[in-house]
Structure formats: structure tokens, C-alpha cells
């Protein structure tokens, strides 16, 4: 009988086979997490779901951008809500988070997990929660909505996740100024280029001499492209796929000319980080190991990301409205 421990061993033995390609690696992560879900069901004798549902993952997993080590970001949506279904998914969500942790997906520091009642709800309860977040419009509510838009169904009915996003899009269509609140949530990015044109690295500590790829390199692209995707009503979650869809639109063809290539390079840098003992190791690249040409290329990627981020914020704040 398969266990969390046997899945962990299999994962550790096999994962290097998929480390050459980001898509292959993320398909592998999907497979691992799917097996964890099956073991979880059997462990607590909940093998047959009592209703239609979707188990979705979000964050880098939802965007198909995980490295060799990734934390867990996931939730449940199910329909309908009654005593039986509410109990089922509460039990499943609690055990699932523990199982993923045992297998090697650390608990999410932001508590974006099925064990958190905020991320394990019936469809009707989800819509009430989304309505509250949209009406609040505060920093944390907008952050939660941004996280939702990176969600993709890993098991169950993908249409349920799409319905949640459609609910938000309908609200934004009627309240287009809300896009400006999304813009404010992502306006701050980590400086990556110094006054003398040098790549800014960590000056002290465990990652001295390294650049923080997550916050200095990835997030300017991820956040800017997500915001454009939301403005245009796209349902895709991968940053690369969002870019490809947006580039087909006249307004963004020139803007995103180099973005796909740049972002693919960042994913390649992430895959190069194989000496990993903790989750944060997947975010830091030691600049000195790069050749002069590689440092030049990375510097251009960082500059392009900052320019893209600045343009998108300006575009939204000038009054660009949903779907236009």
C-alpha cells in the first residue's frame, strides 16, 4: 500500500529526471500531488467524494513555474454544501496539507492551504467570500483575489474554478476602477539594478552575493502580466501562456516583444539551482558563477521586467478599463 513516505522516496529518486525542462518538472509535481491526494483519501477512509468538486493549486504551481522544491498553495471548491460535504472536505483538507508536507512540499507561510477554511468552501460560500473581498478592496483582500487568479484545477471539475473567476470578472466589469486597487497592490518591487548599473545582490547572510530571483526578477513579470490578463478577462494561469495570448492583442504586441524569451530564461535559471536543502534556496542565484555574457543578459532581463511593470501600472492608473 502506498504511503506518504513511499511517495516521498519515489519523488526524491525520480525528480532529477525532470529537472532539464520546466514543463516536464511541473507535470511531475502534478503527478506527485495527485498521488498524495489519493493516499490521503484512503488514509482517512474518504475514497469517494460525496459531490462535484475541484482541488486547485495556485502560486507557482498554479502558474506551472515550480522549481525543484516548492511549497504548497491549494484549496477546495465543492457543490453543494451540506453537513456531509462540509465535513468531508474539512477532514480531507486538514489531512492533505499534512501529507504534502511529509512528501516534501512545505506548509505555506501564508496559509493558502485546503486546511484553512478560507480556502476550502462550497461554491456558494466561495462566492460570498469573493463578494466580501471585492467590496472590501483592502490590501489583504486584493492579495487573496490575485492568488485565486493563479489557481488551476489539479483534480475534479475545472469548471468550478472557472466559475469563481467569472464571478470576479463580472464584478470588475461593473466596477472597472477596482483594477487600480490591484495595481496598487503590486506597485512595489525589489530593486535589482544599482545606480552604477550593477546587479544588486544580498549583502549579508546565507545568500550573500546572490540575487533574489523571486522578488527581483520573477515578480515584476508575474504581477504585471497577471494584471493585464485580469484586465482582458483571460482565464489562463501560466505567465508564458498569458504573454502569448496578450501578444495577439494589438495593444501589447510591442510591449511583450521580448518578455516570453526573458521569462523562459528566468525559468532556466531557476532549474539551474540544484544544490537545495531548503525551500528558499530555489530563489537565490549566485551572480559570480555567471559568465560576463550571462550577467549582461540577466541585467537586461531585470531592466525589461522593471520597464514592463512600470508600463502596466501606468496603463492601469491612467484609467484603462476592463476589456478595453
UniProtKB/TrEMBL annotation:
<dbReference type="InterPro" id="IPR005105">
    <property type="entry name" value="GlnD_Uridyltrans_N"/>
</dbReference>
<dbReference type="GO" id="GO:0008773">
    <property type="term" value="F:[protein-PII] uridylyltransferase activity"/>
</dbReference>
<dbReference type="InterPro" id="IPR018821">
    <property type="entry name" value="DUF294_put_nucleoTrafse_sb-bd"/>
</dbReference>
<feature type="domain" description="Protein-PII uridylyltransferase N-terminal">
    <location>
        <begin position="26"/>
        <end position="137"/>
    </location>
</feature>
<protein>
    <recommendedName>
        <fullName>CBS domain-containing protein</fullName>
    </recommendedName>
</protein>
<dbReference type="Pfam" id="PF10335">
    <property type="entry name" value="DUF294_C"/>
</dbReference>
<dbReference type="Pfam" id="PF03445">
    <property type="entry name" value="DUF294"/>
</dbReference>
<feature type="domain" description="DUF294">
    <location>
        <begin position="176"/>
        <end position="315"/>
    </location>
</feature>
